[in-house]
Structures are given as structure tokens and as C-alpha cells.
Amino acid sequence: MDIELARTFIEIVSTGSFIRASERLNVAQTTVSARIRNLEQQLGRPLFVRHKGGASLTPAGEQFLRHAPMFIQLWQRTLHQVAVPPGRRAVLTVGSEVSLAQPLLLDWVRWMRLSLQDIALRVHVDVPQDLINQVASGLVDLAIMYAPPHRPGLKIDLLLEEKLVLVTTNSDARVVDESYVYMDWGPDFGVHHGMNFPSAAPDLSFDLGPLALNYVLATGGSGYFRMSSVQSHIEAGRLHLVPEMPQFSYPVYAVQSASADESVVGPALAGLHSVARDERR
Length: 281
Description:
transcription; LysR_subst-bd; WH_DNA-bd_sf; DNA-binding; transcription regulation
């Protein structure tokens, strides 16, 4: 399929009109119409219904809309892979969740630049749901994630076991009180947190670890955070472990497509395991 057909389809959906899509694409309206006719012929289904207000999707169009953006991304990814820079044998796209970008992803990228100098790198950070979809579709070769869902066609390797610990800026604090900030570490954490603190009703919650931690450091309070992210603050006296409070496991995984090129992904994964071991020390 010509990638321009999918791009034209997306523009019509975005603008709601063949005319506005042609203006945005800087082509004649007849060109837009011809592309859509070509696309509909290839798919064997009408995709749009035209009316005075513009154009709306048919049921087949609604289904194609689910796949068209990924098709475009995959094509762009293919172009990146084909365009291997001079002096490199391959291109590797790696990624992580936002909260794992520093230091783990950063240290891994540094390692690869030193140890895999024949590999060009593309580094990507995203939210978990988008990241796992990108790995599954081949847009990202290898990603660092917490609690990735198991899907056919994915290979998942345990990297390290993180611990979520309760820390506070008040060295005298012993309980979860009104200064407690709830950090949403996912469904499993929510279940165990509820079992251990059934009466807790925090009125401030976050879904991004670094942001929540910076808030606690700036304004005071307490919350559950990864030990690796709070260790330096504990050593500096800015945070304190709350004694006799439960700690929760929060493992980190490497995720790759089972169809990934092992000659490229294999050495990078080995390096990631090495970097992860150093993180534990």
C-alpha cells in the first residue's frame, strides 16, 4: 500500500473534509479523491460517506482508522532502519517508561555508545501502554518497563527487583498521615496498599514517580517511592525511611519482540543486564 494513501485518509478524518484535507496536504481535491478511491479499491470497502458538512467514516473506515496510524509509524520506522548512517551496521531503537529514563536508560545508552559503536541508536521515552504497543509492532526494538503485560510475540526478561519504600521528610513520622502523597504504582501496588492501609484516604495522588518525589522534597510529606530513587536523599538526610512499614516489590523488565534481530538486540540486552547489575550495587 502507498503510504500517501494512509496519510490522506488520516488528514480527511482529522479535518472532516476532503477540501480541507487537500489544503493541508497542498494537493488538488481531485488528487485526494483519487487516493481515497484507490485505497477503497485495495480494501474492497467504502471508507467515507460524503455529505454537505464534509465526510464521515463508514464502519469499515472506523476499523481502518484503528490501524492507519500504526501503519504510518511502521513505515517511518522502516525508513529509519533502512537509512543506516555511514559506518554503522544497523539501527537500534530503545526506550523506557518516563520514570526509568534516569538513570537506567541513560546509563544503558552511555554503555552502548562505548561498547556497540557499530550500532546507531534511537532513544524513545513514552507511557507504558504506548510503549508496549510500539514494541509489539516493531517500532521499538527493546524497552525497559515495569510490569509489562504478557502478549504473544513478546520476550520479557527480568532485569532487577526494585523495592517501593515509605519515606518521609519528617524524621519523627511513624504513620501514614495527612501529609501522605499517594503515588499510583499500578494495580498490584494498589491492591497491596489497600490491604496494608485500609483506612488511608490520601487527598493528593500522582501517577508519575519523579514528579511525586519532587513534590514531597519541595513541600514536605511522605510517600512510597523506589529505593533507587530515594537512596541519595536518605543518605543526605533529606528523606527518612519510616520504620516498621511494609515494602513492596516492583520489578523492572526488558521487553522485546520475539522477531527482533538477535544479532543487534542480543548484545544490547546483555549490556542492559550488566548496567542493571551495576545499579543494584
